[in-house]
Each structure stands twice: as C-alpha cells, then as structure tokens.
Amino acid sequence: MAVDTFSGHPAHAPGWKKLATMREAGLIAIILALCIVMSFASQHFLTLGNFRAMLMSFSVEGIVVVGMTILLIVGGIDLSVGSVVCFSMVLSGSLFLMGVDPWTASLAGILASAVIGCIMGFFVTVVGLNHFITSLAAMVIVRGICLIITKGTPLSLFTLPPSFKAVGQGTFYGVPYVILIFVGVVILFDFLLRRATAFRKVFYTGSNERAALYSGIKTSHVKFWVTVLCATLSGVAGVIYMSRFGAATPTFGAGMELNIIAAAVIGGASLKGGSGTILGAILGIALLSVVTSSLILLDVSVYWQDMIKGCILLAAVSIDHFLHQRKAI
Amino acid sequence: MASVPVLEIRNVSKHFGVVKALTDVSFSLERGEIHALCGENGAGKSTLMNIIAGVLQPHEGDILIDGKPVKVTSPAVAQSLGLGLVHQEIALCPDATIAENMFMAATNRRRKLFMNYGKQARDAQAIMNRLAPLDVRANVGDLSISNQQLVEIAKALTLDCRVLIFDEPTAALTETEAQTLFGIIRDLKAHDISIIYISHRMAEIFSLCDRVTVFRDGRYVSTERVADVTPDEVVRRMVGREITQLYPPKQTQDERSAEAILTVRDLGDGARFHDVSFDLRKGEILGIGGLIGSGRTEIAEGICCLRPTTKGVVTLEGPRLHSRSYADAVKAGIVYLSEDRKGSGIFLDMPIAQNISVLDLKALTGPAGLLNAKAEADLAHRFVRRLGIRIGGMDIPVSSLSGGNQQKVAIAKQLAVNPKVILMDEPTRGIDVGAKSEIHRLLRDLARSGIGVVVISSELPELLGLCDRVLVIREGSVMGEIEGDAMSEEAIMRLASGIAGHNNSKASGHAA
C-alpha cells in the first residue's frame, strides 16, 4: 500500500485530469465512438433532427432514471416504476375526463404516485421486506389499478387544452420543453447528490448501513424518503407522457423498469448500493438510446434489437466489474 | 505413557503475512484422554485447531496420526482421518432441520441418488437423545443459541471420530446443558475417543480434563497433568509474559481526580448485562476487561443507546442523560468506537473526509441544507494532521489505507464532534505495533485534556499498560475493579474466568 504522507494541500486534481479518471469518461468515449461510426454508416444519423429525436426519446425516461439511481445508491431497487408512470398517467387522465382542470389532475397524479412510494417505503422500513419483493408486488398491483381505472381501454385525451399539451409537445426557442425539464431535473439532483447533506446520508446508508446506524443516521428514514422520491419522479414522468401523447394507455410503461435499471447500472450504479452518479446514469440511458437509434437507422430487424441491447448491458457491466477488480488488487 | 499418541503435532509453524500465529509448536494427544488447551485470546489455539481440522495449512512441521505422518489438506480429509471439530462459532444452515444439519458431512460423501430422510431422522434422533430432548425435525433457525451449540456438538458426534476437538463449547450453554455435555465427553472418553478441550474456564478444565497444555503468543509453554498443577499456576503460565511494548506514562498522583464525568448505575438490558455500575473519573483511562462474549460490548452499546436498556441511569457531568438514540448520545457528548471496524466503524468505499465528517453533518451544513465541502475538507485535514494519518489524498477511499490508518480515521470521526466521553471497543485490534502505540499515546493525551476515555480490550497487556483502572466483566456483570499496584494479568484473568470475584459460588458451579 503505497501511501505517502499527505502534503497538506487540498487534494483537487486539475479538472481535465479528474475528468479522465472518472468512470463517465469511458461512457462518453464509447458514445462518441458509436456516433462517429454511425455518421459514416448512415447519412441520417448526424442530423439535428435525429439528435433531437434521440434526446426526446430518453428525456422522460431520464427523469425516472434519476430517481432509480438515487434508490440504487441507497441499496434499494424499484421494479414498479413502469407501472407507477402509467398509474400517474391514467389517474390524471381520468380525472381530466371527469372534468378536473388538467394541472390539478396532474398534481393529483403525482401526489398519488408519492403515496404509492410511501406505501412501499412503509413495507421496506417498518415491515422489513426488501425493496425487490416490495416493488415487484407494487409493480403488479399498480398495473392492476391502472386496468381497473381505465377498464382496460386506452383513454383518449385529445381535448386537453393546448397550454397543457405544450408541456410535452411545445418548444422554447426551438428546444422542446420536455428536454428542458429533463435537463433541469438532472442538474438539480446531480447538484443535490453532490452537495446536500440529506443526500450525503443516502451514500452513507448505501455504503455501509450498519456503520451509518453506528453514526447516528436514521437509515430507515433515509430509505423511506428515497423510495418516495423515486415513485414521485415516476409520477412526474407519467404526467409528461400524458401531455406528450394526448392519451393514457393502461399498458404503457410495461418493461420500462428494466431499461431504466440497465441505464443506471451501465452508468456505474451498483446494485449493492453506495455508488452511482446521475451523470453516469444519464450517459447510460443515452448509450442505450444511441444504440436503439443506430439499429433502426441500420435497418436491423426489430426482433434483433432487444437481444443486442441485452448483450451491451452484459458487456458494459462485465467490463466495469473487471476494471474494478483490477483496481482492488 | 508408552503407547503411540493418537495425534501428534511436531514443530508446527504458521504465519499470516508477517504475523506469526504459531511458532514451532508441538503437542501430543493420548488415546482416550481429555486434554485441555489454554491460552489467552490470540495465543494460537484456534489456529492450531484449524490446522488439525484441515481448514488451514501449516507452513512448517508435521501432523502424525498413530505415529504416521499425514497431510490434512481439507476438512473432508480431516473427517476421513477421524478428526472432528466442534466450532466455537456456530456454522449451521438455519433453514435446514436439525437432522439435515447433523448429517451434512455424511450427505456430502453419500454416493446415492436419493436421500433417505426417514433413516437420517431416526439416526439423528438417536444421537440427539443423548444430548437433549430436541426434535430433530425442527429447523435450526428456530432454536436458541445454546440449542444450536448442542446441534453443532451432535453434528460432530455423527462422524466416526477418533479425535474430537471442542472449541469453547460451553460459551453459550447453560449450567445444566454444560453438565450434560461433560457427561457425554466422559462417555466418549470411555469409548477410547480422545478429546481436545479448549476453554478459558479453569473450573471446567480441572474437573473434566486429564492434562492441560498452555500456549502463549503462538508458542508452546507447558503440558502438565491437572493433578500436578493449580488453576493459579495455569493462569500465570497463560499470561506470564513481559510487557515489551512501551506504553505512555499513566496519570500521576496529582492528576488524580475524584470528579466523575460519567456515572453508570444499575444499567441492564434484561438479557446480556445486568446491574452494571461504575464511575468514569476525569483524566483517567478506564479499562474494561473480560472474555469475549462476556457482555463488554453490549454494556458500551447500552450506555450510548445503540442497544435498548431496561433499567439503570447514566449521567454525564451531573445531569441524567435522556438520550433515546445514538444520535442523542453523540449530541450529549458520548461517542462509541465499534470493535467491528469494517462492519460498523467505517465506510470503506467512501473518501476519508466523508468518513471523518459523518457524525456531525449538521455542523458542516449551511442554511440551504447544503454541505460546506471546504469546511468538510478542513475538518478532515485538521484530524489527518493531528492523528498523523498517512494517506495518499483526501479523495481516495478509506479501503486503500492500512489497518492502522483506517482505525485512525475511525477515531478521527469520533473526535470530530468534540466528545466528552469516548468508549473505545478494541481500539487496536488487528493493527501493527507502531500504529498501536501511536493510538495509545493519543488516548493518553485525550485523557489528559479532560476527556473521559473507556477502553474495552481483550489484550491484557494493553489493559495493564494503558489504563489507570480496570473493570472486569463476566457474564454481563462487573466482577471487580482493579487499580494501581493490584493490577496484574493474573488478577484480571481470575476475575474474568471466575476463579475469584463477588459471586464465587456461581463461578465454581461448573465444577460441581
């Protein structure tokens, strides 16, 4: 163990050097490499339209990825995010159809999602079940609720006022609101995760829950609120989807959770807790999105796409595991 | 004894890295004898037993069975040679039945496609009936610790053993269960099975065993027939070592103060400790000694609310402490350093600065709820310099530091909240000699500056060299207090093993 006496200077490496050693750097390199290859392979790839489409495609999911990453850091997981996104969507949608103002209906949808988070948090921290089982049950139950609310049929919401539809469809100086919201959420939570005391406790709890308890941190509170946060962000995503599609489908978001967990894990979040960054997770979902877009532009059969994405997940995580083992020795 | 020993160990040495666990140790076991093996924690008993049981391999030396050298390369080989070990730590599958656990080794060797659960249960019940009236179809996870210990013993009895090793088997047993076990051990002896019996309890050794071998610091000291020695002599051999380490000077007569910083009265949790009372005086280092599992850690955790207590009063500098959680205790000024550094002391994969700041994040938090990163780094720098922690940089994870420096980070974390009282559980466990004496000096400096320091330690030299006063705990009660010239390793061991103490009658109960 070659450790020399600490010199007393603040240990801040130059910015570029720090960037090069960050795990995100590898992901950026892979994404850039993929983009360069694709720009030769397809003339449609390197266009503003295609990039906007790619960004749009993962912006809303990206909001859920933020919540999932924080939950993974605390050592939890949430399989119910896809169901909760859908729940928020169909609840707000049906309230709107019942004559409620769309903004109020959306708020209700987000709050109801938070309540689902509270219920899951209760089962995790008070009853003592683990996140996996609790959210697996919630995934099925909430999906069931969506079917009950809609009686199984999609809700058509073309009567939504233009001011509300603008959230999902409008632009601000050419930039879609959806992307602005996404970037805002990412910057906010990335900042909080780095700087806020409350979020520091998330890292302590996920890194070593016993040590956190032995440091006077109320780890069950931390786990509860992070669970609620993840469900709430899913609720926000659901409302944005409603505005964007002008419809609410009771089967929407099925399988979304796997994509989201994959993105966070590719971005460096550990299922054991204690590590993960928002930036990494967003790069993870960006990578998956670029791959999807590439496969479509290259005319790869849709039947092949899932398999290829799965292989990329496996490769990314294996490489990361290998690099970390090497570092440990 | 003209016959060839059943088991003979010749000149065995074993080291872990640079730490020598065993040096040139020899030992022999006659047919049908019960042979006690004694030594302090860390004397090398468990290492030798693990070598015999095939868990560890010696670096030098031979193992002979019936005079023939053998290589015990794995636990399976040990079993086939007829060497059985009853582990001190319970290693059972909680979700399997007693019978399945008892026959785990036999199942492993079984070369048949299907299990015969009926026969297994009948055989298991026959063996278990000798020990205790337990239904072997019960799940092990539902049993009490003492019954689990009995299953561990029953498991060893299923093997066709010629040598059985018991590693502190009575640690978790009640008096009656212990007596039953002694009956069984005598019965095994009558069937020509040889027993190695590891224990700290002199009463047990002297009532049960034929011979006693003493180890100290990984070396063989002596073997004697129990009829030829006294318990006191054995204890003296166990601890009779010169204190070679240099400890910081103790408090002088003038520094002595009657003023108590922390008082504990009648503290109990209804299970692991009861009626614990003591004072921690200003400027002193108070040691807490006792065997592992005697309740020392539980008492410390009870004082700082990491564990619920059912009765008793703790006062800190006068007023009664009304903390309900560890966070409250920290706020009041009591901090606890866990004995399990990696498990509950530090955040291994987090940076040094974040480890040091964890106990009082509030002090570093601005009005907007944001952490002041600069204040956090400054705090860390201050303690890194003060404790002489050798690090590569503030941003690297604690896991990259040596054990001694990790421990200093854990201590820095406690000191960062300016505590009035620090409870240190095994503060120097598993760290090298240099870091150890640095920590000792640090603790003395803290005591000088008026902080109350409590040190829990299994190392007798540390208790004697470092502390001004030592409380000895046995079975969750304070057995006695030793101070000044009366402090000796023998005095502590006598209290800890129950030869001497307040309730002598209870201590000698095992011999009855």
UniProtKB/TrEMBL annotation, chain A:
GO molecular-function term, one example from the UniProt record: transmembrane transporter activity
CDD domains, per the entry: TM_PBP1_transp_AraH_like
Signal sequence annotation: none
Alphabetically ordered keywords of this record: Cell membrane, Membrane, Transmembrane, Transmembrane helix
Subcellular location: Cell membrane
Membrane spanning stretches: 25-45, 51-74, 81-100, 106-129, 136-160, 172-193, 224-242, 278-297
A single GO cellular-component term on record: plasma membrane
Location (main, coarse): membrane
Membrane topology annotation: Multi-pass membrane protein
Name of the protein: Ribose transport system permease protein
Species in which this protein is naturally found: Rhizobium giardinii
Automatic annotation (TrEMBL), chain B:
GO cellular component assignments: plasma membrane
Keyword Membrane: yes
Bilayer topology annotation: Peripheral membrane protein
UniProt keyword list: ATP-binding, Cell membrane, Membrane, Nucleotide-binding, Repeat, Sugar transport, Translocase, Transport
Residue ranges annotated for the ABC transporter domain, each copy included: 7-242, 255-500
Record flagged with keyword Transport: yes
Gene Ontology terms for molecular function: ATP binding; ATP hydrolysis activity
Subcellular location: Cell membrane
Database matches in Gene3D superfamilies: P-loop containing nucleotide triphosphate hydrolases
Pfam families reported for this sequence: ABC_tran (PF00005)
PANTHER family according to UniProt: CARBOHYDRATE TRANSPORT ATP-BINDING PROTEIN MG119-RELATED, GALACTOFURANOSE TRANSPORTER ATP-BINDING PROTEIN YTFR
UniProt family annotation: Belongs to the ABC transporter superfamily.
Protein name: Ribose transport system ATP-binding protein
Biological source species: Rhizobium giardinii
